[in-house]
Amino acid sequence: MSRIGVNEKKFYRTLEEIFTGAKIEGQGGFLNLIKIKHDYYQKVISQFAKEVEEDKVITNDFREEFFSKLYTFFKKYFNESGSIFFTKTANWNNVYEKIYTGQDDIVLFWKTHMLYYVKTDTIFNNLFIEVEDKQWGNSYFYFDVSKLDLKKNNEKRALVYEFSKQINASEAESKLGIKLTDNISSAINVIEVNYSTHGKTTKIENLVRKTGVRDESIYKAISVFEKQNKVDFFINKNAKKFLTEQLDIYLHQILLDDSNEFSLSRLEQIKTIKLYAKKLINFISNFENELVYIWNKPKFVLNSEYIISADLISSDIINALEKAPGYAKQIKEWIDLGFIKESASLQDIINENPHIPFDTKYFPEHKYVILSQFDDIDSALSGRLIRSENYQALNTLLNKYKEKVDLIYIDPPFNTGNDFAYVDNYQDSTWLSIMNDRLQLAYQFLKSTGSLYLHLDERADYYGRILLDKIFGKENFKREIIWDIQVLSGYKTQAKNYILGHQTILFYIKDPQEFYFEKQRQPHRKEYLDRFDKVDEKGRKYFDGRGSIIYLEDAIKKGKAVGDVWYDIMSFQQNATSKEKMPRCTELTQKPEELLERIIKASCPEGGLVLDFFCGSGTTISAAHKLGRKWIGIEMGDQFEDTILPRIKETINAKGHREPCGITEKVNYSGGGFVKYYELEQYEDVLRKSEYTPADSQINLFSKDPFESYIFFSDQKYANVIEVKGNQLFVNLNKLYSNIDLAESLANILGGQLIVDTEDEVKINVKGQIISFSKNINKMNEDEKMVLLKYLKPLIWWGE
Question: Could you say which protein family the record assigns here (predicted)?
């Protein structure tokens, strides 16, 4: 084969690899995506090859350079997942660069600034592993990931390993396609791999018993298997613009090369490289655009339930709940949460726990009866708890809550590399992408009187400051708060360095003319109060060192205005040094409720709305609830079920394994509340459920230039829920999910307030106009269905 042939082959092979990304095995929406990409690639690249063959400029003399230049260009901008950004450019190691423009003095620039961050995941593939053991003999494993369901978003989920079967060497080669270089007489142990659900763990003792292999060898095999390729998944926000700009720079470098001869034929060759590179850029960017549409598509609300305290439920409904089939499960939950020790009559339970919370998931037959007690559901709710990746949630909720939030407090991952209950070992560039996109959305949620507090440590505080200056404006920075978390003892104090004793909270506002702020006060220190050493004729102590008399009684009553160094709120580390004083809820969180109490009282009026979209263990929403503020909490992963839901139920009851704790007694909180919780459809769900036309059919729909055509324009996506028979229109959302909350989904899309939600009817207040829908869509007349589809369109069909 000629050298030209080698370059050409290398170009096509590499382009396919970088476009579809690394090989992935298992199940999930990303696999569906890669199959679609691969299918379209095969069809379009054949057209590309045909046009190259017919081009008179791409002769034998130029052909080698043509493919070499294309290979060199495209190879630079793709990573293992097929994401498009700076990966191997000349400055690819320089994450940050300063860029000077006419509009901004200095703009922070980072490698992934043009990307939506989707998730970090490990690409696991089927793997044959031999573990050497001179004493007991070698053991053999085949890790099967064919049923592995890829993680959504950035959930922290452990892998679970289960024994499947034992096979011999010939079966391994014939059925599994394993190429064995040695003669193996021992059995090969097939281990099925999946992600953990509901706390499921690997039982090593079971693997030992079923495989007959020592546990040490099993651990070694698992360790080798888990050392596979970790990849960040991104979506380029504007792939066409980015790649076209980079192509112009690349071609400009070629033109500036002193070795080039600037003949007309040479310029024609460079124009030809540009022509075909742009064809591929157009095709690639079409696919990337579809991912952008899916990422930014508002998401369906799923699995909605309510938590409501007993004092908000009528006695008739209470009596009905006690007789319901799910009542026994509710009793078990109350016992598990420490509300009661054993089952008793419901009236006795309520007498002891007047605010005990009922969860409607146990009472589906009474759910809408409970909701019928409220004339305006949204107004009656204390808070909303949403299980979702937070960008998807913020983007979905924006219409409903734009300029309605009083206070945002977030305590995001600090980029420490440690492994808390969520993944937080983002590299700097990825962390900046995550925070930039979410803070830009967050800004739109705030009222003109609103404030944002961003809680960081020394690893990220300066990044956060630059991002917030860019989004909120430098003039809207109010204060850098230093929270004294001084550790008095322990291994951290032994470091050969100054002892780290603080974290940073950045305080920004939206409008300097209107922002709400209530100055907070704290008791004076003893050293100050000791200065009140004079006594007047009435026996009152006073101090006159400042030219005016201040009485001790007034000083104590008024207290001292809180400054920007907070030394009076005990941190988790400080509490840990005195376990007898440690509040019971500190086992859940690094942040005490007292910290949030100060922030909420200062920047959110009573009855105002607090948002935390890095909800963590739920400290923000628990404190907001106890302080009489409404709240929205967003979190993803198993801790939603395992940590936050139990905590908010204990907060509502004001009793439990961990309650009373935090500020419960300090603010005289006694319990009660009405909370809605639900999940949102996720990006991975959309990838999994979207219906795309097979490439064989779709190719015929292309215009004269298949590279320019938006190939997904005519795809069904979610439109398969709509069926037309004659003059009748049928809508079946159950084709997507059986548990869609139509009322909440529509309220989010329309930006309205959910007023009524019954088994039959939905009423939403949209800027004073009441919009009603029947719950049974197919009982609507055709005009009503068309109106409904108009509102549902962003949810079921995108990319127009």
Answer: Belongs to the N(4)/N(6)-methyltransferase family.
**What residue spans of 212-345 are helical by DSSP H?**
215-226, 239-256, 264-296, 315-322, 327-336
**β-strand partners of 631:** 383, 610
CB atoms within 10 A of CB 413: 20
Distance (Å, whole) CA 342 – CA 175: 55
The answer to whether residues 619 and 767 belong to one domain is: no
pLDDT digits (tens, 9 = 90+) for 590-633: 689 999 999 999 999 999 999 999 999 999 999 999 999 999 99
What is the distance between the alpha carbons of residues 753 and 307, in angstroms, rounded to a whole number?
Answer: 19
Of 740, 795, 778, residue with least CA distance to 302: 740
Locate 142 and state its tokens. Answer: 């085949």
Cα 42 from Cα 29, distance rounded (Å): 20
Interatomic CA distance for residues 621 and 508, integer angstroms: 20
Backbone angles phi, psi at 352, to 5 degrees: -85, -25
- The string of DSSP letters for 341-385 reads SS---HHHHHHH-TTPEEEGGG-GGGHHHHHTT-S-HHHH-SEEE
Helix 742-750 crosses helix 390-401 at what angle (to 10 degrees)? 70
**Are residues 427 and 569 part of one domain?**
yes
Range of the domain at 471: 401-519+562-637
Query: Would the pTM of this model clear 0.85, i.e. be above it?
Result: yes
Inside any domain, residue 712: yes
If you search the block for the tokens 């064989």, which residue do you land on?
696
Beta strands in 653-742, from DSSP E residues, in sequence order: 674-680, 722-725, 728-731
Tokens encoding 222: 């698992």
Give the list of residues 6+ apart from residue 702 with CB closer than 8 angstroms, or none. Answer: 709, 711
Residue 155 forms part of a structural domain: yes
Query: Are residues 577 and 448 part of one domain?
Result: yes
What are the structure tokens assigned to 317, written together?
Answer: 């409904």
- 105 occurs within a structural domain: no
**Domain total in the chain:** 5
Main-chain phi, psi angles of 129, to 5 degrees: -135, 130
Among the candidates 227, 248, 271, a domain finishes at 227
Residues 393-421 pLDDT 10s:
999 999 999 999 999 999 998 766 554 55
Q: Are both 465 and 554 inside the same structural domain?
A: no
In this structure, is the dihedral angle defined by the CA atoms of residues 14, 16, 18 and 21, taken in order, positive or negative? negative
Q: Which two tokens stand for residue 25?
A: 């095995």
Q: Strands 761-766, 753-757: parallel, antiparallel or unpaired by DSSP?
A: antiparallel
